[in-house]
Please model this.
Amino acid sequence: MQGKKSLKYQVEPGGSLHGKLRVPGDKSISHRSIMLGSLADGVTEVTGFLEGEDSLATLNAFRAMGVEIEGPHAGRVSIHGVGMHGLHEPDAPLDLGNSGTSMRLLSGLLAGQDLAITLTGDSSLSGRPMKRVIEPLTRMGAIIGATEAGTAPLVISPNSHLKGIDYPLPMASAQVKSAVLLAGLYAQGETVVTEPAPTRDHTERMLQGFGYPVKRDGSRASLVGGGALKACRIDVPADISSATFFLVGATIAPDSEMVLEHVGINPTRDGVISILRLMGADIEIENEQTVGGEPVADIRVRSSRLHGIDIPEDLVPLAIDEFPALFIAAACAEGVTRLTGAEELRVKESDRIQVMADGLTVLGIEAEPTMDGLKIRGGRLTGGCVESHGDHRIAMSFAMAALRASGAVEILDCANVNTSFPGFVHVANQTGLHIRQSEVS
Ligand code: S3P
Model:
């Protein structure tokens, strides 16, 4: 995963977006399909799997722990589950690249197993906070070493004595919730997690899909350790977080209309639709259905004039990965958009508040960062050169900004777009963008 070539995008200004598009599979669901499929009894068949670097990091980690996994071939993966106690110690540390979800969920899943395992990642992942998972897992009895700053590498010691806890999550984080629940599978007694606000519930849904009882009662999710998972089929929907770039692009570019097909619209993930609609976007949900326990639909979007809003704080966790793109929408809206209650954005793949404020400023937009959010005054975007800081979602968001810019937008450090959206440049160019990608030596 180390030594990636540096890539930059040169995006021509203007244009409109058209077409039907199925964006790649949901990243969160893809990770979880490998994790639970590996621990299940029997063969789990996955379709629509995201062949991006993050979910492949999870897949390779389980291969390194002895799980036979066929694929991915065009999104199909067959996982030969080894059962709850069938993983092996890998020969080397597990390198999880850029993927926070892999590291946090794996630390929970491995905390109560009789295995000594070290988890490492790239420079971005090695700077991200891991105390948030180490703290509850330690309370359960896990032994996990980290740097003094509470960052990776994480050194997990063999352990078969976890006990269930009743844990109020200090922040709205699905990764922390999932880490505690996955550790709970190996703990004695009941593990309860209470969240301060609803966060994505794919772990709870998928555990139930694998036949593992999870009790859900308002903000509480709980399970009792010691059970087993039964292999199943998983159809991974298209990722609403990847569809978001086109929802924003087709909204801000004149004369545009797109249909994003088979997108996961789980109510813990659909905040972007609510926020864009509050800003005046024209978004319709079509062909809604439930596939493998997850709601899925086609989303039609047409250009529209946006206006600034105060983003309701209760929508923040439901759109947590969509703010870079939403900030571009705000830059194209009339008036001021204010985001508050979103301090979590500072500890994503980059500090998304600062990095987006810096990039928008380069493009001539007034953007004032605060501790927990950003105030953006809509205006005219100019061309310019912006830094993505190796953050996939920042890179793709600024590519969409070019649709309304008066000059070309150059975006640096774009290789990590492959973590969540392989083929982005090709797909974006087919729908109406003009992106040239080149290697930087
Ligand atoms: C994820 C949870 C979110 C999100 C991340 C994926 C998951 O992180 O930002 O991209 O799959 O559980 P937090 O739990 O840190 O909010």
Summary: The chain has two domains: 6-25+237-440, 27-235.
